[in-house]
Amino acid sequence: MVPFAAIFASAALLACAPVPQPDSFRLVAAVEIPLRTPADRSDLIAMLRRHAAADGLHVDDVSAEWQDHQRNAPELPDFARGTLYVGVWRGAEDDDLEVSVDDSGHPGRAWIIFSRGKQPVLATRTRESLLSAIGRRWPGARRLPVLPTGGLPLADDLRLSPDGYRIARSAASGYELPATSPLLAPR
Known about the structure:
Blueprint: H1 4-12, E1 27-34, H2 38-54, E2 57-61, H3 63-71, E3 85-90, E4 96-102, E5 109-115, H4 120-137, E6 142-143, E7 158-161, E8 164-167
Antiparallel strand pairs: 1-5, 1-6, 2-3, 3-4, 4-5, 7-8
Helix pairs in contact: 2-4
């Protein structure tokens, strides 16, 4: 089973300040999908398992364990609270997290986050295949901006645009983004 530390490592990528990270852990893409029904959630987990099996990865779903932990941890910040925590790993020892899925701080809106991986060619193949399947199943999936640091902005700092999410201009300085950054929402 995946240790809770892996969940916190994913959450740390959401921090505003740049955090040094191994190149394999660097985020390269992220997408948000709505999970409106139990069937949506089941479909997503099944999709992850199919793609993982086809590419020699495995899926660890620690959602139930994390929800139990949350009930006993009132001090957890809102960004660490959610209902869905899934990791897709390459390697028998859970040493290469390629895909993580959670709805921490944005319940009902699953963020599928893709890392570069220790084997970038294989990780790219998995990512492209999953993104294609996600687009077919959830045509309203929204791209999330990946920061130059390889992390993600906080959900509260996102604004919807025609091509996915962009970062609110008022939050630009917190991410050390210049006013001309294409990651920022239009004026």
